[in-house]
Amino acid sequence: MPRHSAPQQPSRLRPRLLVTLVVAATGLGFAIYLPSRNDTADASERSRGAAGFLRERNRERPPVDAFADSFDGKSGSTVDPGKWAFATNRADNGLEFSESTRNASLDGDGKLVLTARSDDGNRTSARLLTKDSFQRESGVLEARIKVPGGDGIEPALELVGTGRGDAAINLLATAVPGDFHTYAVSWTPSTITLTVDGADVRKIDAAGVRTDQQFGLALSLRARNSATLPANMVVDFVKIAGADGSDGDATPAPSESASAQPSESPSAEPSATPSESPSATPSASTPPYWEPFKPYTAGQVLSFEGANYEVLEAHTSLPGWEPTALPSLFKKL
User: Fold this and answer.
1) How far apart are CA 143 and CA 157, in angstroms?
2) 72: domain range?
3) Does residue 301 sit in the same domain as residue 255?
4) Does one domain contain both 136 and 226?
5) What is the distance between the terminal CA atoms of the chain, rounded to a whole angstrom?
6) With contact defined as beta carbons under 8 Å apart, do 61 and 132 qualify?
7) How far apart are CA 257 and CA 267, in angstroms?
C-alpha cells in the first residue's frame, strides 16, 4: 500500500499543518495531516471501521488491482452498489453517517455529491467504502474532487490498510476548497509521490517499504459541531491504475483526459487565480502572486495581499504557508 512521509517542516506552522505519523503493524507508514489530538483519535476510529470491513470482504473475494468509477447515472440515484458500501455508524461528535440519497447521490452529469446537513439539529452526512480491496506493487490512485471550505468541514479520500495496524492516509487533508482539483498518489517499489493537479507535493524514497500491501478506499465528508451546514463535496471520478497507466479490467473514467491536462480547464487550476484578488493582477513590475503547491527558490520575490516578499528558503508551498504566516520562510520587502 502506498505510503509517504512528511518532509522537513518550517519552524513555525499553523496547528492544522502539524503532522502525525501513523505506522501500520505491517511496517508501512502513512503521513496524516491532523489539526489536533481529537482528530488523531477520529482518524484512528475511521481506520479501524474501514479496515475491519475490508478484512471481512477479503474473506469473500480476493483483492483486485484496478478500480474506476466515473459516477454515471440518473440524477438523484445512488452510487453503484457493486463498487461501494455505506457506513451507517454515528461519529463521536454526534454526526450520523447515512445511506440516504439526501447525503450521497449522483447529479446526472457524471458526478457524486456528498452532503453534510443539519435537519432540526440532527446532523447527517455520508461515508462510502469500496467493496473491493486492492493490491499492486506499483500503481496510482487519482481523484478529481471539489471540496467545501469553512471551519469544521473535513473532506476525506482515505487509503486504508487492511492490516492490523489500521493505518490510513487522507489525500484531502490539505485540499484546496472552492474548485475542482486532481489529487493523486503514485507508488513504485522505489518511489512514492503525492501530487495535486500534476504538480509534485511530496516525493520519498520507498526502499524497504512494502508497496504491495492490501488496501481499500474510504470517501467521506465529516462535519464538526462548529461547521456551517449544508456543505457539499463533489467527486468527478476516482480510479486506481497501474503506474504505467494501465487500468487492468477497470473501466477508464470519462474525465481522465481532463485530469491529465488540468491546465486546459479553468476548474483544474490549483489555487486562486490573479483575477480573484486585485493584488494578484500581473504587470511588468508586479512579482508573481503566492500560490499553494508551487516550488519556490531562495531569493525569489512574490506578492501577497498587496505586499512583496522574498523567499528565504527553497520549499514547495502548502495551504496555510502564506508569507504572512511564516516569517521563517518569507521576508517582507
Assistant:
1) 9
2) 15-266
3) no
4) yes
5) 45
6) yes
7) 14
How far out from the chain centre does Cα 83 lie?
20
Per-residue pLDDT, averaged over 112-129, amounts to 93
**Mean pLDDT value across the chain:** 74
DSSP characters for 105-132? Answer: EE-SSS-EEEEEEEETTEEEE-EEEESS
* Residues 227 and 116: beta-carbon distance below 8 Å: yes
Among 52-66, 198-212, 246-260, the least confident range: 246-260
Is residue 50 located within the same domain as residue 166? yes
Q: Which residues pair with 238 in a beta bridge?
A: 69, 143
Q: Please give the grid coordinates belonging to residue 308.
A: 512583496
DSSP 134: B
Confidence of residue 81 (pLDDT cuts 50, 70, 90): very high
Query: By C-alpha distance, which of 63, 5, 28, 103 is closest to 249?
Result: 63
**What whole-number distance in Å separates Cα of residue 306 and Cα of residue 158?**
37
Residue with the bigger pLDDT between 126 and 257: it is 126
Which residue did the predictor score with more confidence, 15 or 302? 302
CB 150 within 8 Å of CB 229: no
Domain count, the chain: 2
257 and 278, same domain (yes or no): no
25: CATH: 2.60.120.200
Q: Output the CA angle 107-226-117, nearest 5 degrees.
A: 25
